[in-house]
Amino acid sequence: MLGNVPLHPLLVHAPIALLLFATILLLISLKWTHFKLFALFTLVVGLISGVAAYLSGDGAEEYAEANLSSVTHAAIENHEHFALFSLVAFGVSLLFLLLGYRSNKKMFLLLSFVVAIVGSGLLAYTGHLGGQMVYAK
Prior knowledge:
The chain has 6 helices and no strands. By secondary structure, it is mainly α. It has one domain. The protein is elongated, with a radius of gyration of 16 Å. It starts with 7 loop residues before the first helix and ends with a helix. This is DUF2231 domain-containing protein. Residues 5-136 form the DUF2231 domain.
């Protein structure tokens, strides 16, 4: 919280953009492997910003429960769980990408991309759940 304003709405945009962009870079890396380093960097920064956004959610939860009568505790918990699932998926994607660096096999790059696609879906759903809490009446 910054004053009485939660930081979470400000922080969530960085991981959304970075992790979705990292997924695109992983796809490009399947054809042009010199993009792997850019994908790796984007994925790491996206995960770090995702952890910051996740940790800032507690302040947003307090704010929502105090100021938004339409937000239920169950909705907040659901959003929080899917945010964690997203971070875990992108963490696994990063692990596969790092394994691909060690072995230099394209299979790990492909696995990294497939898991990032799953992570992107989870991330989109997490954003949808967050948007429903803020914008749905």
